[in-house]
Amino acid sequence: MSSLRDVLYLTLRQQIALVKNKSISSFELCKAYLDKIHTINKQYNCFISIDDKAVLKQARFIDRKIVNNNLTKLPLLGIPISIKDTIHTKDIPTTFGSIIYKNFIPKEDAVSVYRIKKKGGIILGKTNTPEFAFGAVCENKILGATLNPWDSHLSSGGSSGGSAAAVTLGVSPVSLGTDYGGSVRTPAAFCGCVGLRPTPGRIPNIHKYNAWKWLSTEGILARNAKDAFYFLQSISGSHISDPFSHFDLWPSKTKNIKYAYTLNFNGAYQVDPEIKKLWNKTISILKKNISPLSQAQPDVSEADRTFKTLRSFNAWMHYQEFIKKYKKNLTKSFCWNVEQGKKITSLQLKTAESNQHQIFKNFAHFFQEYDILIIPSTSVLPFSNDQKNVTKINGVKTNSIIDYLACTYFISLVGFPCVSIPTPFKFNNLPFGIQLVAKPYHEKLLMEVSNNLERHGFKFCQPQID
Predict the structure, then answer these.
(1) Could you tell me if 227 and 113 lie in one domain?
(2) Which domain holds residue 168?
(3) Which of 27, 50, 147, 176 is the most buried (most CB within 10 A)?
(4) Of the residues 394, 416, 438, the one at which a domain ends
(5) Number of domains in the chain
(6) 206-230, pLDDT tens digit by residue?
(7) Are strands 259-261 and 372-376 parallel, antiparallel or unpaired?
(8) What residues does 393 pair with on adjacent strands?
(9) C-alpha to C-alpha distance for 119 and 188, rounded to whole angstroms
(10) How far apart are CA 199 and CA 414, in angstroms?
(11) CA-derived radius of gyration, the chain
(12) In a domain, 462, yes or no
């Protein structure tokens, strides 16, 4: 290594090993990250808040413990990790990307953050997000827009764009984000990194408005699938307040894996021509390296209407008081998203819940025959930050501003784990990602398949920045 700065693009596991064997100190590692953050954050807007003194104080504490040969078994020992600014962090501002919460400091950590600290990790800072994680562009009135590392005129993706850009730019080894309709996977694809949406409950969440709703889950941004899986295992596990967290097995399969692929679930949504071209190239290379690979998909009839109904209803139930009290201070995108649920009837809600169950069964039956389903991570390429919303796909006017996320929210609807990984192909130097979907709790299989594909070019590439 020519310099300490070269360490920043090593894998998470390599960095942990360096700290544990005292090749570098946690203080040196954190200082290198902070120095780089302060160099590029004004340009890219990855972080909303950073507290250098708190980070370095904790790093010194970790280093003293390491010198005394304590804590060396902790899986995240001395590693700085960034957190999306919609996730509660005790004594650290959590703004949710809204000026309403600009000075809000939680009194307790989210379960995931608490576990990061207990496992030896250090909270590096809070990454940018659109207001309350609603928005196609990762921007808010506090910080502005997070820029795409491959083209600073373009979006880094909503809503975990700050986390995805931070990982891609080498200012965070991994980052904790959230994914509702694609908020980890879309930024991962736009920025060219890995985005893991685990089975709901793998990362317990006690701050949901309804513990029985699985559409949203925390997720992970990383530069390779092994790091994402390692991080997931470090913070997963049962929690009394999350009913989905109590299954803690990690089934896998290494032989006779059967793969299926679909561009758009037999025409269930539109994709831009550039995406289709990249997809065709991707399938060609996949056919040479994995088999059997069949063109097939589960039945997703009513999935679009069902997701939109449930999402809108949940948003209205959670945020209606914000709209009533603070609408003048809220973004149009956030208000639009929430107000879609205002007129949902009880019959529409009951029908959506019934359809969700049927679509889940369709997926469950499909995955009795197949182990991995491969689909594009996005229906469009990264678009301008000035565009705000996607109103046309493949020249066809969209029915709503979230239609471009259908390829990700179909998977959110059924709660199956999935990971977005970069492909070897780009369009005008912009990355393209694919999703691998597996049965619930089969994140280990996703990691193994992703790791195999990495050897065939499906891997992170470092962008060249000024």
Answers:
(1) yes
(2) 4-235
(3) 176
(4) 416
(5) 2
(6) 988 888 888 999 999 999 999 999 9
(7) parallel
(8) 396
(9) 25
(10) 10
(11) 21
(12) no
Q: What would you measure as the largest C-alpha separation in the chain, in angstroms?
A: 64
| Tens-place pLDDT, residues 9-48 | 999 999 999 999 999 999 999 999 999 999 999 999 999 9
Domain shared by 288 and 385, yes or no: yes
CA-closest candidate to residue 161, choices 383, 401, 332: 383
Q: Do 288 and 396 share a domain, yes or no? A: yes
* pLDDT tens-digit series, residues 255-292: 999 999 999 999 999 999 999 999 999 999 999 999 99
Pairwise CA distance, residues 205 & 239, whole Å: 9
Indicate if 224 and 322 belong to the same structural domain: no
Amino acid of residue 98: S
Q: For residues 64 and 246, give the distance between their C-alpha atoms in angstroms, rounded to a whole number.
A: 35
> 11 — phi, psi (to 5°)?
-70, 160
Give the residue numbers marked as catalytic.
84, 159, 183
Show Cβ contacts of residue 55 under 8 Å, excluding neighbours closer than 6 positions: 30, 34, 80, 122, 123, 124, 125
Question: Which CATH number belongs to the domain containing residue 207 in this structure?
Answer: 3.90.1300.10
Note the Cα 187 to chain centre separation in Å: 7
Structure tokens of 265? 């679930």
Q: DSSP string covering 371-418, please?
A: SEEEEES-SS---BTTT-S--EETTEEPSSTTGGGHHHHHHHHHT--E
CA-nearest of 110, 108, 84 to 97 is: 84
Length of the chain: 466
Residue type, 317: M
| 427 strand-pairing partners | 430
Beta-bridged to residue 219, according to DSSP, are 177
Q: Are 159 and 138 in contact (CB under 8 A)?
A: yes
- 206 with 292, same domain? no
Q: How many other CB atoms sit within 10 Å of the CB of residue 357?
A: 12
